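Example for tutorial group B:
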């Protein structure tokens, strides 16, 4: 798959890339070219150690992005992998107002006598009350599920209810532990794109409804967190609370929203997530998915589907789905 900086607005970003059959290496992208970045240029032994000093550390790379030497490679000649190697992945549930209202309407019980308009109004009031009085809802994902969009999404054969969820992901910089919302954004190194793939019929346990949600089985199959392809420095994203997101499926727009529809904004999410465990450099904090999931459209992922997720200023992510049987 040809790599491109289409959709990027930052003067430079970080990636992990492969040239030929080589193992993924850290790289700096500026325009349509990429160059390897090592510990000497990072001023740190690895990416996560570098991110621990962000956002100030980004200044080290500005001069390198402007160099004109033979270290650069055409971006189209390399393969981009996931740009981060998180130790922890935190996911945020039910954090877009319209998304939750749609899910409530789509999941209406057969014996619910309320007209759909009344049900949506009830859900809207519930979300507004939650935004005023509640706290963010977090669960954890497996870092092993993080892959680049160079890896096909294999749809496990045990279900036909695999769904898409385009999300803005915060990449943590310096460690955040029990921070308040006023200082939360000081711990953001940058942003990337994540498609938080979900197997809908495994989210709720049928054998023991009292347990509630089963996020391990519902979200953590191999490759269920396509990430990247770019790590965009936080200083180049002026308004993370008002970014446009769009996901297309085979060219048809399915999700089209802005982060202004978040129930809990980024400072609230970072502060809330940091209360239990420290958020470590390089960790991913997913901020939730907007309206337009497959469960609402009545259309789940199938063999051969191509998803393109774009977030304003962060580039584009292309994910190709193949049935598990077809991948054997």
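The residue assignment follows.
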């Amino acid at each position: 798959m040809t790599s491109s900086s289409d959709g990027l607005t930052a003067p430079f970003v970080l990636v992990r890339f492969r040239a030929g059959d080589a193992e993924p290496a850290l790289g700096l992208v500026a325009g349509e070219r990429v160059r390897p970045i090592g510990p000497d240029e990072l001023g740190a032994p690895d990416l996560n150690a570098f991110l621990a000093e962000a956002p100030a550390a980004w200044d080290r790379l500005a001069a390198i992005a402007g160099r004109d030497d033979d270290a650069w490679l055409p971006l189209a000649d390399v393969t981009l992998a996931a740009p981060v190697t998180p130790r922890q992945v935190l996911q945020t549930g039910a954090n877009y107002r319209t998304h939750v209202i749609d899910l409530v309407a789509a999941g209406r019980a057969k014996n619910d006598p309320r007209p759909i308009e009344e049900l949506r109004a009830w859900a809207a009031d519930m979300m507004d009350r939650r935004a005023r009085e509640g706290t963010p809802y977090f669960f954890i994902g497996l870092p092993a599920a993080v892959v680049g969009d160079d890896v096909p999404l294999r749809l496990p054969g045990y279900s036909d209810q695999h769904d898409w969820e385009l999300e803005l992901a915060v990449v943590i910089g310096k460690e955040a532990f029990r921070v308040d919302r006023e200082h939360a954004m000081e711990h953001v190194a940058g942003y990337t794109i994540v498609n938080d793939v979900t197997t809908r019929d495994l989210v709720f346990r049928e054998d023991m409804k009292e347990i509630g949600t089963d996020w391990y089985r519902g979200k953590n199959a191999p490759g269920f967190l396509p990430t990247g392809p770019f790590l965009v420095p936080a200083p180049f994203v002026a308004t993370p609370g008002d970014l446009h997101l769009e996901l297309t499926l085979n060219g048809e727009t399915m999700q089209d929203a802005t982060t202004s529809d978040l129930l809990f904004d980024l400072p609230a999410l970072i502060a809330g997530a940091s209360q239990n465990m420290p958020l470590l450099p390089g960790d991913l904090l997913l901020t939730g998915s907007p309206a337009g999931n497959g469960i609402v459209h009545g259309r789940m992922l199938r063999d051969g589907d191509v998803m393109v997720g774009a977030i304003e200023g962060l580039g584009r992510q292309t994910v190709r789905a193949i049935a598990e049987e077809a991948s054997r």
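Residues 100 and 110 are 19 Å apart (CA to CA). Compare this with the pattern of hydrophobic and polar residues in the output above.
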